[in-house]
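ok here's Transcriptional regulator:
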Amino acid sequence: MQKVMSERFNDAFQYGLTEGYPPLRQAVSEICHSRGVACSAAQVYITSGSQQSLDIVARTLLDPGDTIVVERPTYLAALQVFQLAQANILSVDTDDDGMLVEQLADLLETTRVKAVYLVPTFGNPGGKTLSEARRRRLVELAKKYDFVILEDDPYGEISFTDAVRRPLYQHAVELGCEDQVVYTSTFSKILAPGMRIGWIVMPDWLAQQTVIVKQAADLHTNMLSQVITAEYLSLNRLDNQIALIREDYRKKCVALADALESRLGEHLEFSRPQGGMFLWARFRYPFDTMEWMKKTLENGVVYVPGEAFYHDKPDTRTLRLSYSTVSEAGLLTAVERLAASL
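and the structure:
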C-alpha cells in the first residue's frame, strides 16, 4: 500500500480505462496463460467481480426471450442475472461428472439455444467437476449448434489434488471456435473478496458492446483496488497464497466430510469435493431443508437450502455447506448442532 501511495498515487485516484488498468490486464493475461487460457492483455477486461462479469455479458449477449441453458442445480446469482435479462432459462441435469452433456445434445436437436452457462470446475453449489470427455463434447456441440459457452471459473485454482482440468476455452482453441467461449474468473476466492476484482476473456465481436454496457454501469472498476492488485501480483506471491488456501480448505473439507459421515451418514448422502469451497448434501429420505433451517438457526448453524439453486424442479432434500471461513473445530461443532437439530 505504501508503494501504491508513493509511486502510483495518480493511477490509483484518477479515472481509468473502462477496459481496466493496463498493468493489471497484463498480469491477468499471464495468469490465464498458466491456466490454459491463451489470451492477450487486450482480450482481458477487468470487472467489479464475477457477478458484474455475468451481468454485463448477459445484458450484451441475451435479448429478451433468448434461451440460455444452465446446470441443475446452478449458481443462484447467475439465475438472478438471467432472469433480469428476461432470458428463457432451461436446465440440464448433473451427476458426479458435471453437466449431462448428452441430455443437452438432445435438447439442442429441438431448441435454438443462445448460450450455455456453467461452472465446470468445483461448481457452485454442487462442487462437481465436468469430466474431460464432457468438456470436449460440450465445445463440439457449441461449434455444431452455434451457441456461446459462458465458462465461469472462480474456484478452479482451489484444487485439493494435482489433477489437470483443462478449461473449456482451451478445448475451443483446439477446435477453432474460441470465439464461442467467454471465460470469466475472479480474485475474490484466491486473494480478497472485498477488492471486487474479476475479469472476462471474450472475443472481439462481443467486447465492444460489453465495454459500453460496463461504462454505463460504473465507468470503470475501482482504480485503487486495481492498482493494489496489480502491485501485489508484481511481487510474485500469488502462487504461495493459493497453495496456503488449498491446504487450509482441504483440511477443513476433510474435517467436515468426516464429521458428516460419522454423525449424519444415515441421514445424508454426499460426494467428497476435490476442490472449491462447498459441500453439497442430500437427505436420503423426503425432507424440507428450508423448513429445517428454522431449527438449525436456533442452534446457531446456517446453511443454504438447496432449492435456491434450481430454476425448475427444486430438490427440497438438498443443502449447501461452506467450509471456507470456519475453523476445523467450528465445523465439528456445527455438525454436532446439525445432528441435534434433527
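+1. DSSP finds 13 helices and twelve strands in the chain.
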